[in-house]
Predict the structure.
Amino acid sequence: MSIEEYETVIGLEVHAELSTKTKIFCKCPTKFGAEPNTQVCPICMAMPGTLPVLNEKVVEYAVKAGITTNCEIERNSKNDRKNYFYPDLPKAYQISQYDRPLCKNGNIEITVDGEKKKIGITRIHIEEDAGKLNHDDFGGGSLVDLNRAGVPLIEIVSEPDMRSSKEVDAYLKKLKAILEYIEVSDCKMQEGSFRADVNVSVRKKGQKEFGTRTEMKNMNSFRSIVRAIEYERQRQIEVIENGGKIEQETLRWDDVSGRTFSMRDKEDAQDYRYFPDPDLVAIKLSEEYIENIKNNLPELPESRKQRYLEDYKLTVKEADGLTASKYLSNLFEEATKISNNPKAVCNWIMSDISRILNERELEPSDIKFSGKDLAELIDLIEKGTISSAIAKKVLDKMFDEAKKPEDIIKENGWIQISDEGAIKEVVIKILEANPQSVADYKAGKEKALGFLVGQAMKETKGQANPQMLNQMFKEELK
Amino acid sequence: MDITELTVHELQEKLKNKELTITEINKAYIDRINEKEKDIQAFITLTTDEALEKSKNIEEKVNKGEIKGELAGIPIGIKDNMCINGVKTTCASKMLENFIAPYNATVIEKINDENMISLGKTNMDEFAMGSSTETSYFKKTKNPWDLSKVPGGSSGGSAAAVAANMVPWALGSDTGGSIRQPAGCCGIVGLKPTYGLVSRYGLIAYASSLDQIGTFTKDVEDTAILLNVIAGHDDRDTTSAKKEKKDYTKALKNDVKGLKIAVPKEFFGDGINKEVKESIEKAIEKYKELGAIVEEVSLDIANYALATYYIIACAEASSNLGRFDGIRYGYRSPKFNNLRDIYINSRSEGFGDEVKRRIILGTYVLSSGYYDAYYKKAQQVRTLVKSRFDEVFENHDIILTPTAPTTAFKIGEKSDNPLEMYLSDICTVSLNIAGLPGLSIPCGVDSEGMPVGMQLIGKRFDEETILNAGYTYEQATKFRETYKPTFKK
């Protein structure tokens, strides 16, 4: 049988850290990257006798996520304890939700290759994150950092509705965008605040029952997720084709070798002994409470996209690209308030800004400059103060330091040379140094002009006005 | 005048009249502790030096008029499962032998706000699991009425310390009877308030849905005074009730005319000692004399309370005690090669038998496949127990029962028989299951001279009615003036 006769079935459990200022059960800050064990208190360190108090913002954020993913909201919810021992779990139980999650039965619509599809959301529940173990450099021991213990999470469990890595990619991007727009999570994947457990199985097309699934835990890059699904699908099909059986197990994806590895631990058959947490009272939500959240939701990506298509005449691809990230979309909106060239703003965001983000492995939320700065930069090009070549250098600097583009240009002496005398001087110098090109041009080779202009730009470190250079060369070569 | 014989309201009177000073009072109690501790063994940690220092300081401030509080300088004993910042808090366990609490429990803050002075941390059953204070890792507390007998438990240290006049009053905690039963055994007054009346923040949890902090005092008036201090909503404990602050001393009217008392026949069955029954029956007669209306009722659901209690309490305990893992604080076994060893050896060596027994029971009833048959069923029975009590309260103001089936038993008599030990709580557990308040007051002695406790059960958040009923009985019978601990060896 061939690989085409198989269908891949994928379900996801996404963990998103909520961007509340304080932890879920105490008043410690949730800021990322602090010195180990500096954002802790007796409660999140599980000192004997301490009690949790539920941060109401966490409930609000989870309800927001539920409403925007078309979930039913549970009016009478509760917290449950999930019991297990691990050094990063100071209470030896995680406060989570078991049989009455805050949200259930929702869906997200995705578009893949022009086709729309609804991906079911089984449930969204709230829970606390665990701490972190540092295994290196401590003489064989491990150190426990509890800064992250008690940071609020929502777990968004999808139905096994996805059939390809493309659908998974689309689902994750859509989900990430929604969470960013409603401002419940900053979804920084590198910091682990948006991560997914990926469940993959394969079955023959037309078969009703699901195949045995494997799970890859804690994946935090779209690229790795796509690669891991592709790999795992092929591996499973090969096993089956060779007469083998898929074992239900947890796998670890190794990005370097591009393979999954079994995390075989036979003691893994955990019984979490869930039961309602007696330290916390039931979470009862009134109709007014839910209505109030519904009525105060910010604009969602879908509606922004429509606006961009109509108001700015952007293409679908451009509108999709901009609205995929709230931060990029906000940057666009801020810039277009000042700039009257939305196409240019869109181009800068979609090409150079996106390129730099990729190169530097940054998230759009890491961008330090404002839309106003971007609009000014574009304005400077249009006014002829700088060339677009220089503008790219300015943009690069804007990622490093929070300075106005104008100041960066001044500091670096990058103002465009538009003085006729100065330009003429350069043109003559380049002509003298390149007699062959001059001859080529005169012999009808238009391309030679481009080379000469390029040399002049090099000579002026990109600061010469390119239109003036062009014109001046043409005149001198007449 | 023996200062340590006085109740707190008497001490307050003498302070007001300048017959006594704060340091005199504290010195008297410290001297008494120094004299009696070797026999009673009530304390795990004594903080008497700090207390003496503090009493001088407070006295000075009171004299200068910087502090007003009516309880300023009054000493108190604290059960060793409540956290006091900077003081060892052991839960009478090897697991926490060297644990110094890094924060104050809410009740401790309240006591500090009143400028009261803790003289020390009192002995208890390990993690409050037991009915005799014998499961303490450190020592066995003796009953001041007979040193060969247990003081009851789990708050046996607090009860014995009050009975032996080593502190004028003390705090304890009650999960299934751990205040009322030792109060009964030691011939003093013990109150378990309604679940949610007193904040549990800083009380090291045994069973979160049943635990409640309460008082040990020499008389009911002191109970009302101390309850005034510790009751009240706390933002740090979401299970604490949002109720208006009350002055419980105003409830003490010395009048029970027309009070409707229910006496459930199930609490007078075969398991109840004959002499205990006789004492309680006498007390019932007394109430009738005082004008109360007594009626026998049936509370058959109470027969299921003990089983329900052990399932729920152990289930919660198995989870609550998970944090004692040898990682961040507490005992860590020196024998380990890997993480598993740290967990297994630290917990095997750090916990005593009774604690391990309850963790194993609790783990079992929560495990998949057994949850429905045990934990879920127990929660259903819990609902029934609540509603049966509520039904009785539709027609009655209080319910009267013995506090315990027997008077204090011999040290060692039941320590090898956990089931028999568990029966000590048969009269008290249903209140924790239902969240009701219960007051134990002494109502006589048996032929060996050991005190008998009577339990008065009230409606939820109606501590006033049982306090008044207890107070009225106390005024009419004067138990404290008739009987005193003999320190018999």
Notes: Chain B touches chain A at residues 81-83, 89, 91, 96, 99, 101-103, 105, 200-205, 207-209, 235-239, 315-316, 318-319, 322-325, 327-329, 339, 343, 363, 366-368, 371, 375 (CB under 8 Å).
